[in-house]
Amino acid sequence: MKKRTKIIISILITFIILLLTVIPFTITVVAYNMNFGMRLDVSQNSFSEDDLDMLREEVEFPSNKGQILRGYIYKKDDNYTPKALIVFSHGYTNTHNDYLNQINYFVQNDYIALTYDNTGCGMSDGNDMIGLAQSSIDLSSALTFVENSDELNNYKVFLYGHSWGGYAVTAVLNYGHKVDGVVSRSGFNNSRDMLIEYGKRLYGNWLGLLSPYAYIYEKIKFGDDVDKNGIRGINSAPDTPILLLHSEDDDTISLNNSLLAHKDEMVNPDRIQTILYKDRTHDVVRTQEAIEFSKTLDENTEYTKEVVKMSHELDEDVMKSILDFYDSLL
To answer: pLDDT tens digits, residue range 247-281?
Structure first.
């Protein structure tokens, strides 16, 4: 009887271990790799570098594992002195091509811009995107490239990022680079909270139970880099001016999970500006017409240049608010 009792207890212990560790961790790994274990190429609904009137110079530089990141330096022409350098970090499921009209806006207003694709995206090396923390690691590599460039290191350095990039431009401040100003729009604070929010939207609220396992898996993948979140980055650079933009109805990164909602946790809050919109969804720089038009696009859409232009039409007032912020720091 005692032997049978021991067997039952052993089975129960094994079941509990499986229930509390192996099974949820396996689910976490599978779900994570479904979203990041793939390459992301330039989408049909993206600009071509030839669509806009800018000079470009192709650049490449290594990131943390030696993978080569590729992109461009964009200029208006060869006959102006740029006000400053804007380094751009793109969003998840995007490449820098999706933002070329925004880059063009700043370039035509006398800035120079460095754009690139993250690991596993667009022009850059990598079999997959690895994970959310990779965007700040890649941005740190881009800033190292800037610091080692005889041309680029002469300018003030401003950062501009959207969504995944909105997280990156604040989290990268943990790495100690000299940054003169940051614009983060629709950005989130840390990768774990964003993963869980996204997972809940796809699979239900029960996914919140996997939060500790998501952190452990990212810790295995990224080490201490996963703890270098946006708030810590902002607080590690207490004199760096920050502009945070978000919309209340953002259905990708909720307001609760936004950087903007955490302003009271940031040191020296007077240097942090915020703009909160009500009905601009996840891409506050687009016009309402562009937002509504994008909802009509599907897998049968023929992405002509006109369709791409209409779906990315910029709200001049929003873009001007970002430009004014940068200009105020010159």
So the answer is: 999 999 999 999 999 999 999 999 999 999 999 99
> Which 8-state DSSP code applies to residue 270?
G
Tokens of 39: 């390459």
Residue 244, in any domain of the structure: yes
CA-CA distance, 14 to 8, in Å (whole number)? 10
Question: Does any domain span residue 116?
Answer: yes
With cut-offs at 50, 70 and 90, classify the pLDDT of residue 318.
Answer: very high
Whichever domain contains 180, its CATH number is 3.40.50.1820
Running DSSP on this structure, what letter comes out for residue 155? S
Does any domain span residue 177? yes
Q: Are 148 and 76 in contact (CB under 8 A)?
A: no
Counting the structural domains of the chain, the total is 1
What radius of gyration do the chain's Cα atoms show? 21
User: Taking the mean position of all CA atoms in its chain, how far away is CA 34?
Assistant: 18
Nearest-angstrom CA–CA distance, 148 and 153: 7
User: Which segments of 9-84 are extended strands (E)?
Assistant: 55-62, 68-75
> Per mean pLDDT, which range of 13-27, 160-174, 258-272 is the poorest?
13-27
Local structure of residue 188 (DSSP, 8 states): B
List, in sequence order, every residue forming a beta bridge with 112; answer none if it has no partner: 85
Lowest mean pLDDT among 166-170, 173-177, 209-213, 255-259: 209-213
Q: Is residue 99 part of a domain?
A: yes
User: CA–CA separation, 1 vs 6, rounded Å?
Assistant: 9
Distance CA 67, CA 330 (A): 34
Print the domain residue range for 249: 51-190+229-327
